[in-house]
Amino acid sequence: PVPADSAYPEVAVAEGDAVVCSLVAPAAGGEELAWCEIRRGGDASSATIRNLSSDAIIVDGRVIQQELVDIKPGSKIVPGPREEGHLVYTFDITAAKDHDKNNVKILLDIENAKCSICLNLWHDVVTVAPCFHNFCNGCFSEWLRRSSSKSRDKSQSAACPQCRTPVQSVGRNHFLHNIEEAILQAFSSLQRSDDEIALLESYASVKSNLVLGKQKNQSRKRPLPPASDESNDEFPCPQCGTEFAGFRCSPRAAHIQCNGCGGLMPARPNTSIQKCLGCDGSFCGAYWYSQGVNSSHCNLICNQETFRMISQHHISRLPDTLHGGNPYEKDITERCIQKSGKTLQAVISEWIAKFDNKELDRSRLQLNNVEAITSRTYLCNHCYNKFVDFLLYWFRVSTPRN
């Protein structure tokens, strides 16, 4: 409410604080009293008022006792039974500030969102540690490749191209990637050409978190291979210092951390047995098995069964997470399988074949890279359970209702 006499303050009423406590008369030193209740109506331009005082009030010339009446912007309200001797307020509605959490605006200097190598806006931004500088994935990957080929001291860690701090690890930064996309939506002129993007993506080698060089004083995650010198503390993985399957890590080799056991394995982008295509996580079980490394060489590696091709997974019981963990639906599926006269593994194998033949709508498959997945794709156990859930959904859909 806005008083007609500008010598008196306006009365602000928030949605959660509807009772009006204010002066009712212009007397000097007058007492503020709770005299009405105002609440927003069904639309943005209306409200209701209820008299709470011991006397009548006037709304738009009408004397109001205790009843509830409608008001709108411009309505005149007198906090007493007559206009003489009382303040006169005019009702108005002000627009509320937008507090939509999904549209929070952040002030950002675009110069702080540029790669210091190419001087353009980030593309597929990666962050290096411990200095936390950010670069395009392709720019940093190509810089790292050239830096490694030119370095004479192979034991020295790679340096950040911006501050020259030794880089311990690098990974894709999904939060900054969202900011990168928001900037491009607001400033389309910063978008690179298709040829530039294709070139950058051809250079990009950071697919998951990479550990670079030798890490001093890191907590021991794996027992070390036997060696005669005193540099054992600097071997992060079994292939650092010992050759397996014809491969041995170079002194500055990048490493990937396993999502399963937390240990390290060399980053070898040309192999498909280090990364789960369903969740983009890294797992070491299949890789170490292919290299002939087992628990006798290192007691902290994942079991081969934790990361296999879809066609190599074996299943003997329904996953607990089937059908969103609904025990009723799970029981129905189990009885449907029993009535089919087939084992669970046989049913899954049959539907894997349908999946390979693209007979199923993949839009319900809650995995990454769904169009690239085949029976020869490596999946971790968690993603395999999601895959089984997807197949058994279609099994249920195709089962006659009787």
Coarse shape = elongated
Order of helix and strand elements from N to C terminus: EEEEEEEEEEEHEHHEEEHEHHEH
How many H/I helical runs? 7
CATH structural class of the largest domain: Alpha Beta
Q: What strand line-up does the widest sheet have? A: 11-10-12-13-14-15
The proportion of residues in beta strands is 15-25%
**First-to-last CA distance:** 68 Å
CATH topology grouping of the largest domain:
Herpes Virus-1
Quickly count the domains: 4
Q: Biggest sheet, in brief? A: 6 strands, antiparallel
Arithmetic mean pLDDT: 81
Rg over CA atoms = 34 Å
CATH architecture of the largest domain: 2-Layer Sandwich
Residues in helices, as a percent range: 10-25%
Q: Report the uncertain regions.
A: 215-233
Subcellular location: Nucleus
GO molecular function: ubiquitin-protein transferase activity; zinc ion binding
Domain RING-type: 115-164
Protein name: RING-type domain-containing protein
Question: What's this, in brief?
Answer:
By secondary structure, the chain is an alpha+beta fold. The chain is 22% helix and 15% strand.
Structural notes for this entry:
It is a single chain. By secondary structure, the protein is an alpha+beta fold. It folds into four domains: 2-90, Sandwich (Tumour Suppressor Smad4), CATH 2.60.200; 110-206, Herpes Virus-1; 215-302, Herpes Virus-1 (2-Layer Sandwich); 312-398, no CATH class. Helix content is 22%, strand content 15%. The chain has seven helices and 17 strands. It has helices spanning 137-150, 174-186, 194-203, 285-290, 327-340, 344-356, 381-398, and strands at residues 2-3, 19-23, 32-40, 47-51, 57-59, 62-64, 68-71, 76-78, 89-90, 125-129, 134-136, 169-172, 210-211, 255-257, 264-266, 307-309, 378-380. The strands form four sheets. A six-stranded antiparallel sheet has the order 11-10-12-13-14-15. The longest helix is centred in the last third of the chain and has 18 residues, at 381-398. The relative contact order is 0.07. Residues 215-233 have low confidence and may be disordered.
